[in-house]
Amino acid sequence: LGVDMVWDGGQLGGQESRKDREKHMEEVCKESAALREVVKKYPWFVTMLKRARLGELSRNKAVKVKLECVEEKEARVIGNNLIPCLKSRKVIAAGVDQWRLQNRSVGELFK
After folding, report:
1. Would you say the C-alpha torsion 64, 66, 67, 73 has a positive or negative sign?
2. How far apart are CA 81 and CA 12, in angstroms?
3. What is the rounded distance in angstroms from the CA atom of residue 71 to the CA atom of residue 60?
4. Rounded CA gap, 47 and 60, in Å?
5. Nearest 5°: CA angle at 53, between 81 and 33?
6. Residue in 73, 90, 92, 72 with CA at minimum distance from that of residue 82
7. What is the pLDDT of residue 29?
8. pLDDT, tens digit, for every residue of 33-82?
9. Are 103 and 78 in contact (CB under 8 A)?
10. Phi and psi torsions of 78, nearest 5°
């Protein structure tokens, strides 16, 4: 999953369309028992992963919404924030940490 989000190509070989990438994220969420539990509790989680997986560079916009209050709109913004955070740091862990600190709900997921 991490490979798909950071490097061009990923598991789908780099020639996939936007729909293929979104479908791939849905499949990953269905196959993983842990992700199924998260999606059951937070239905917007798939949207967030899809937006992050698209890997489109966008401006970071902090989302200060509590985890239980996140809706699809906020999930799209949070997902869009991941790639710029990862690409702005040399170490992936630092990018994820920046993403976690920037988005309150992500920080709550990490707890």
Report:
1. negative
2. 22
3. 18
4. 17
5. 110
6. 92
7. 86
8. 988 999 999 999 999 988 888 877 778 888 999 999 999 999 999 999 98
9. yes
10. -60, -45
CA-to-CA distance for 101 and 45, rounded, in angstroms? Answer: 18
What interhelical angle do 72-87 and 45-54 show, nearest 10?
A: 40
pTM for the full predicted model: 0.76
- Identify the residue whose tokens are 């499949």: 27
Using CA atoms, how far residue 96 sits from 12, 13, 27, 31, 60, in Å, is 23, 24, 23, 23, 13
Structure tokens at 16: 């996939």
Closest by Cα among 20, 16, 99 to 63: 99
Q: Are the beta carbons of 109 and 79 closer than 8 angstroms?
A: no
CA distance readout (Å), 78 to 16, 32, 47: 23, 21, 10
